[in-house]
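Changelog note: in this version the structure field was regenerated for every chain. One regenerated record is shown below for reference.
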Amino acid sequence: MNKMQSRDLYQACQKIAIEAGVIIETEKKRGYKIIRKSRKELVTEIDLIVQSYLSETLGAINDCDIFYEEDKSQGSKILSKECFIIDPIDATHNLIAGLPFYNLSIGYVYNNEIVFGIIHFPYSEDIYHAYKGEGAYKNLDQLSVSKNIVLEKSIVAYDNQFHLDQSIMINYQKLVESVFTTRILGSANRDACFIAEGVLDARVWNSTKVFDIVAGSIIVNEAGGLVTDFNAQPINLGNINKVVMSNGGIHQELLELISL
């Protein structure tokens, strides 16, 4: 197994993400099986094909742990010294429905710190990426969050897991009454990238997993935004649940609203 310097690894992973996107688009045209994981959660055989491809190619260029959502046995092992955290397809339901917000992501973690994150949208062929301390980019263009500091002028995205807990709908109602408008796009990474490029002002996750937000969190941070839990604390990669990403300007007011 090879070991690469993290900066070289960052470049190599961008190429791998783009190659994985080609696989998604190719397999999508061929037709694919859909598997029901639970009453409100589907997965496709494309997810598994891309997961296998990413595991093999990432493992070939860097000898470290690789974590992905479908392996439920991993648990707290994500706190290992060095690892990739991948989401082969974020927003599988969008892909199935024909909506263009599906994507794939790669996060690289060293000593429990996110070093870089990459999100690729095969449909549009856009790649969002960030390396710690070097800014966030869409393709070659540097990103910057919105400058809005007024909550009532904000566009805030929200998760769609209303069936999980009654408080999720309660918090959403607070948002509807307090912000300019809301959006539910069904993609954690799409929302994070929209925040990073100043299209959205914030996104609220009432219940999420590290696979959903690891790449997006560094992209938002490097674009000048803020990522915390509901208690305004930095996110803990080993214990992800309630998360807010924002442009920073409305962050505290938003936290106060949903934490009431």
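Spot check on this record: The two ends are 50 Å apart (CA to CA). The chain is about 35% helix and 25% strand.
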